[in-house]
Structures are given as structure tokens and as C-alpha cells.
Amino acid sequence: MSPAQPDARESARAAYLRALGIEQWVLRGGAPPQITPRSLPAVGGRAAGAADALTRLKAEVAACVRCGLAKTRTQTVFGVGLEGAEWLVIGEAPGAEEDRRGEPFVGKAGQLLDAMLRAIGVQRGRNAFIANILKCRPPGNRDPKPDEVSACLPYLSRQIRLLQPRVVLAVGRIAAQNLLGTDAPLGRLRGREHVFGEFNTPLVVTYHPAYLLRTPADKRKAWDDLKFARAVFARRAAGAQQADVLLSGSRP
After folding, report:
1. 168-212, pLDDT tens digit by residue?
2. pTM across the whole model
3. 89: domain range?
4. Which of 31, 101, 171, 182 has the fewest beta carbons under 10 Å from its own?
């Protein structure tokens, strides 16, 4: 590694924090770790199997007519990322631009989300998979209806089962409440390590980037959430690494 590389990374991180509008934010202990996707087995292993299964699930979602949103959507928005991603970021539903492009979190809110993630060493399409509770856009960007969530949540559960992320980051009240099955306000859900799904995956709640664009004063709170999520991830990754060492040591 050349001496210039750490400085370049730190400069890039500073730029992302400036995009958040809070240049004075500084992580104690140095820059965030440079995280890469898990090294999964090659063709014939879990990586190949998960990739094939995700492709099949994406095709199934594209043909879905479980709720009335199938009549108004331009296309489904399955999600974006690699099957080895260790972070899963979940929002509420696609907006107009997402519906047009078929990718979650684009536009200004998506740019802010990318900046938030990069500030803790996480990157869309590299070590993060990004998805929504709903795969179709609700007309007028209204909140998802309960029957729409009930129809779509099984798809997300299957995605999580295939991806097996180390951490889920729920962005926004609607995503958090639906994932956790609660009507508690966002303020009560933040700052805590929740669990989700059959693997008891750690789940951390933060603000939706669209909300932060409207309410920039809460960006500092969002940064606290991101640091907390990073700490949860670090504990989970360290525990998995220790388990791997113990398992390898027990093999003949």
C-alpha cells in the first residue's frame, strides 16, 4: 500500500461528511475500516447458489400481482447489491425516480444515503445491498398500506435469508416499524440493537435521508446512529471470525 492511499481515503471520507453538512464530525480512533464483501465459496458454493436464487427471486418479484400496486407501477424495484454484502439497508418504498429506473434510493436522497454509508466504510454495490419494504411504488408516494406490506414482506424475508447480512440498517419510521412489528415512534427505536428474522440479524434504526434533507438539524443524530451501527457490525464480524477460528481448529 502506498503512503498516499490512507490520505486519499481520508480525503474522500471528509468529502462524504461534507455532503452530510457536518464537517466537524470526527470518528475517534481514526478513519472507518476499509471493509470488503465476505469471501464466499466460488462456483458451486454458497455464493453461486445465493446469486442464482436471488436472480430467480427477482424474476418472481417482477411478475408479482399480489396487490393493487402491480397495476400502477412502471416496474418493480428489487434492490441492488452483491450476494456477499454484509450490510442490508432497507427503506420504505420506491419513489417516482426509483420506479422509472428500477433501482432503490436514487436522486438527492440516494446521494445522501451513499454519503452516509461511505462515511462508515460502506458502499452500495460493494458491501451493502439496498432494498425497500415494498417492491412497487405507491401512487403519489403515499405511505404503504398494511395489505401491501403483508403481500411484499415475504419477498424481503427471502432476500434476507439468501443474503444473510451481518447488520440490517432500517432507514425511516415506516421501514423500522414494519420490520419490527411496532408502532413505536422512531425516537424510541433509535440507539438500540434490535433483531430481525430467523437468523436474529442485528437491526439498527436511523432517519430516512429524505427526512434529513428536509430537517438537516437531525443529521448529527443520524451520525450517532451510523457510528452505533458500525459498532454493532464490528462486534458481529468479530464474533463470526472467532467462531470460524474455533471451527477450523476443531477440524481433524
Report:
1. 999 999 999 999 999 999 999 999 999 998 889 999 999 999 999
2. 0.82
3. 43-238
4. 182
Domain-located, residue 1: no
Determine the Cα–Cα distance for residues 25 and 42; give it in Å rounded to an integer.
40
Contacts of 48 (CB under 8 A, 6+ apart): 41, 42
C-alpha cell, 76: 418493480
Q: How far apart are CA 143 and CA 158, in angstroms?
A: 23
Gap between the Cα atoms of 167 and 85, Å rounded: 10
Indicate whether 79 belongs to any domain.
yes
pLDDT tens, position by position, 63-74:
999 999 999 999
Neighbours of 56 (CB within 10 A): 11
In a domain, 18, yes or no: no
How far, in Å, are 43, 79, 129, 190 from residue 105 at the CA level?
A: 30, 9, 11, 21
The number of domains in the chain is 1
- Residue 136's domain is classified under what CATH number? 3.40.470.10
Distances in Å between the alpha carbon of 242 and those of 199, 239, 248?
18, 5, 10
Pairing of strands 87-91, 201-206: unpaired
